[in-house]
Amino acid sequence: MNSGHLISADNDGKSIWKFLFRQMKPKGRWLTPFNIISIPIIFLGIGLIVIRFWKGIGAITNLSQDVPWGLWIGFDVVTGVAFAGGAYVITFMVYILNMKKYHSIVRVTVLNGFLAYLFYAGALLLDLGRPWNVINPIIGNNFGVSSVLFLVAWHFLLYMIAQLIEFSPAIAEWLGARRAHKILSGMTLAAVIFGITLSMLHQSGLGALFLMAKEKIHPLWYSEFIPILFLVSSIFAGLSMVIFEGSISQRVFSGQISDKHRNEHHNIIHGLSKICTGAMFAYFFLQLLVLVHGKHWDLLNTPMGHWYLLEMIGFVLVPMVLYFYSYKANNVFLIRLAAILTMLGVILNRLNVTVIGFKWDMAVRYVPSWMEIVVTLTVLFTEIWIFRWVINRLPVLRESPKWVNEDKLTDKPALAKKIQRA
Amino acid sequence: MDLHRRDFFRILGATGLTLAVGKELKAAPGAKASLEFRGVLYDAARCKGCRGCEYDCADANGLPEPLPTKDIKGLRTTDDKHRTVVNEYKTSKGIVYCKMQCMHCNEPACASACLTQAMTKSKDGPVIWREDKCMGCRYCMVSCPFNIPKFEYHSANPKIEKCTMCFETRVKKGELPACVENCPNEALMFGTRRELIQEARRRIFEKPDLYYNQIYGENEAGGTCWLYISPVPFKEIGLNTSVQSASYPALTKGFLYSVPSVFVLAPALLLGIQQATKKDNSTKPQDNE
Asked: Which string of DSSP letters, residue by residue, matches A116-169?
């Protein structure tokens, strides 16, 4: 039985703290390969973060006056947010298009998205030189409304709230808060609609950040269409992440997953591979149009041009065909392979726009220091730790407690009456 | 073609001169507000490369003293310790010097990029940075087409360093910027942008053989408050000639203007789709009941 259900019976404050305390304790084995690798890296990363706040950003990064944004923005924030795009796509499919088939992956995807925003936007704080002023654009009278970054910052904040609301029924189920669950579930649709709108704007907004760096970004990657390209690629980036994460969760958290969900999973990623094919085709076609429109044919036969072709053919066209083929052949292994290739392609694209193609003609190129990489891994591993902690405790992958369904059934007649009256 | 251009500028110069001599400046027709920005005209033909302005700038802004000339090798750029540098260029007309600092754009990319309005365009023209607002995101550095804002990477309380045209410390009190006041060769001239453009045209008009017939900053990046005239094409003295002539904030305008419409249209559309697909379901037999 779910312990949360018992607590709802005598919810007198004292027991809820005991319950939370009990939940804080680690579960399962300690000496897993993941723990052995991640724990030392996290501690090293924390040490580096201390140095960063003590001696300045330059002490642990290779950033310079010419390259003000490096790995932490290019990978942690810009790429991380693209991968978190799965949440808005899946919620769109399930709540707006009412595709019930994908319902079982909504929670885990939203949780993944929420944590991604929390940690990758959190990683932004490490990159801010004066993070104590981060509240200025939120509360102060210093609204830089002409800034794309202002829009992105606000959208991050609002979208995190929307995602928290979308996820909150799971928290209510965990705590056994029946009444809260009812209220929070009622807010889901509004949060979803708001969340999708915000996502569309800030996924493209991350691309729009670079519009003013017109002469600084290699012409093969710079165009006025960066925002729309970022938006379209976030669809398949997010879904590929859902496929990838789902395939790992199936193994790692197999104890959590009910047989029903396990059987559905195959069906789900099969459907997602079809959507990815479509989105990637649209993206590839857009990229082609941008290339034709930009008339940069002569640049294709340069080292940067070859790099561009590798990205477009090796990591967009090939995985697209692979998705299509594996959908037709119904081959799960190939779908997963396509997902991994697509994700590599998205990483490549985001880094090409933000870091590799940025001032590509400079004599001394920016290469991230090992310390930047360790801090990035620290952020990533900490996120996975929290993700695992939540999965092991909250009804994310596993079924909701029984009372949820009971409540739903008792609600139904009342709801039907309401609709009739209206 | 070139001659044609030159003629054109001659006429323009002559017009400017007549206006300057014949009438009060206020009477100039169709004067835009942006022309009333204060700015500085730098004349590379007059600059002797003494680097006095570098020392005066460091002194006025509490920055470390610049390197002596004998220790300088190659070209330098401004950085977090130097708000201005004077470089020496070997050009088609011999050695020419060029001073580098913030251009104080009419429509600055850095200020439009700043989400806290820490970087801001003052009404008088200078683009200034305000310590209490800045959160150190360095988006201004990404956006500036002239690569001017510089960041203190080795400080726990980092600042953005750039020329402020001595706005707070001197110009507000009616004094000249430190570099302008102390220039021994009168290579720098402070005034309203309109006066400076007229003065630049006058100089080019009077000595057409000395000057390259263009004013750098008149149209670059939508116009800048810091203007340059030079004996050689501007590319030869290290000025960025690849900047577009339209303003940089205009590049994000389309995107930003689409935001309100998306905010109105997208939720309505989403709700509509949701209702439409829901109705489809209700016609089917419900499995719950």
From this structure: HHHHHHHHHHHH-SSGGGTTHHHHSS---TT-HHHHHHHHHHHHHHHHHHHHHH
Lowest mean pLDDT among A416-420, B166-170, B176-180: A416-420
Count Cβ atoms within 10 A of the Cβ of residue B18 and give its class: 0-12 exposed, 13-18 middle, 19 or more buried.
Answer: exposed
* Residues A285-334: tens digit of each pLDDT: 999 999 999 888 889 999 999 999 999 999 999 999 999 999 999 889 99
Q: Residue B162: is its pLDDT beyond 60? A: yes
- One-letter identity of residue A316: V
Q: Single out the residue of A301, A277, A239 nearest to residue A93, CA to CA.
A: A239
Angstrom distance (rounded) from CA A57 to CA A46:
14
Whether the per-residue pLDDT at A67 is higher than 90: the answer is yes
Rounded distance between C-alpha atoms, residue A177 and residue A162, angstroms: 20
Tokens representing A418? 């309401």
CA distance A197 to A88: 9
Domains detected in chain A: 39-397 (1.20.1630.10)
Choose among A97, A213, A216: nearest Cβ to B277.
Answer: A97
State how far residue A206 is from chain B, nearest Cα, in angstroms. 11
Who's near A283: CB < 8 A, 6+ residues apart?
A229, A232, A233, A236, A316
CA nearest neighbour of A269 among A316, A315, A338, A200: A338
The pLDDT of residue A121 is 77
CATH topology of domain B10-20+63-237: Alpha-Beta Plaits (3.30.70)
Helix or strand run (H / E) with residue A280: helix A259-294
Distance from the Cα of A96 to chain B's closest Cα (Å) equals: 4
End-to-end Cα, chain A, rounded Å: 40
ipTM for the predicted complex:
0.87
pTM of the model: 0.87
Query: E strand or H helix at A9, and its extent?
Result: helix A3-9
Query: Minimal CA–CA distance to A339: which of A229, A245, A203, A257?
Result: A245
pLDDT digits (tens, 9 = 90+) for A149-187: 999 999 999 999 999 999 999 999 888 888 888 889 889
Tokens found for residue B162: 């750039």
Whole-number Cα distances in Å, B211 to A202, A407, B47, B87: 48, 84, 13, 19
Distance CA B282, CA B260 (A): 34
Evaluate whether A360 touches A218 at the Cβ level (below 8 Å).
yes
Q: List A residues 24-83 in contact with B (Cβ-Cβ < 8 A).
A: 53-59, 61, 63-66, 68-69
> Mean pLDDT of all residues in chain A?
88
Report CB contact under 8 Å: A213, B143: yes
**Phi/psi of residue B229, nearest 5 degrees:** -125, 150
Alpha carbons B282 and B271: distance in angstroms, whole number: 17
What are the phi and psi torsion angles at B79 (to 5°)?
-145, -165
A264: left (phi over 0), alpha (psi -120 to 50) or beta: alpha
Judge: A59–B154 Cβ closer than 8 Å, yes or no. Answer: yes
Report pLDDT digits (tens) over A242-282. 999 988 888 888 877 777 777 888 889 899 999 999 999 99
Q: Which chain A residue has its CA at the smallest distance from B161's CA?
A: A65
Domain boundaries, chain B: 10-20+63-237
8 Å CB contact of B288 and A151: no
Task: Look at residue B84 and tell me whether its pLDDT is greater than 90.
Answer: yes
Four-CA torsion A54, A59, A65, A66, nearest 10 degrees: -140
Contact A144 B132 (CB under 8 A): no
Chain B residues touching A102 at Cβ < 8 A: none
* Of residues A62, A272, A219, A87, the one with CA closest to residue A163: A87
